[in-house]
Write a structure and sequence with these properties.
Oligomer: single chain
CATH class of the largest domain: Alpha Beta
Number of domains: 2
Shape: globular
Number of strands: 4
Order of helices and strands: HEHHHHHEHEEHHH
Strand order of the largest sheet: 2-1-3-4
Structural class: alpha+beta
């Protein structure tokens, strides 16, 4: 119960998540398109570049540990789910071009705040001269910023789609909503069994 459970909203290294939250919020709020973006700068503490080591990834696995890929795919596809973290998407010329306009750096203010939380400052400089800036103290899914029930369901359905047909995934969601009332777990376990 304390301090609570963190749930990863994105299939990437968790140190990328605060910045992913910010870029996705900026993309949706300002209806950003790749052609609008001159550059993206992501400020963090020094722990983040030590783990997110791939500035020019060529595989999905490397993309999971790459701020340039996480920022680029969010702008290109307005999402950061399983479907976005593929070798093809990492190697797509549009992704590569946008990744080259992303810079990860250690922000002195965030470094002074320490390492208790993963923080991020994202600045997007637009081709029209404007700069959009937003900060994240913690990532979505952290106990201080929990995912909504709708976000949790969307994540479950996306993951379940890899092994379960949609009707079964929907049944699992309903069973989980009423878990306390199930006489035992066998119906849930049966619903979770892949075909």
């Amino acid at each position: 119960m304390e301090p609570g459970v963190s749930i990863k909203p994105y299939p990437s290294g968790s140190l990328s998540h605060p910045a992913q939250d910010v870029i996705l919020d900026l993309v949706r709020t300002h209806d950003l398109r790749p052609e609008d973006v001159e550059r993206i700068e992501v400020g963090t503490n020094s722990n983040v570049p030590n783990a997110l080591i791939h500035n020019a990834p060529t595989t999905a696995r490397q993309g999971k540990f790459s701020i340039p890929f996480c920022m680029a795919i969010a702008v290109l596809e307005r999402r950061a789910g399983i479907a976005q973290f593929t070798d093809d998407k990492v190697r797509d010329p549009r992704t590569v071009a946008l990744m080259q306009r992303v810079r990860l750096y250690v922000h002195p203010e965030l470094e002074r705040l320490g390492y208790e939380h993963v923080r991020a400052i994202v600045e997007v400089t637009l081709r029209d001269g404007r700069t959009l800036r937003e900060e994240a103290e913690v990532a979505r899914g952290h106990p201080l910023k929990p995912m909504t029930e709708a976000e949790l369901e969307e994540k479950f359905r996306e993951c379940a789609a890899l092994v379960l047909p949609e009707p079964r995934a929907g049944r699992v969601v309903e069973q989980l909503r009423h878990l306390e009332t199930l006489p035992d777990l066998s119906p849930l376990l049966e619903s979770l069994r892949p075909e």
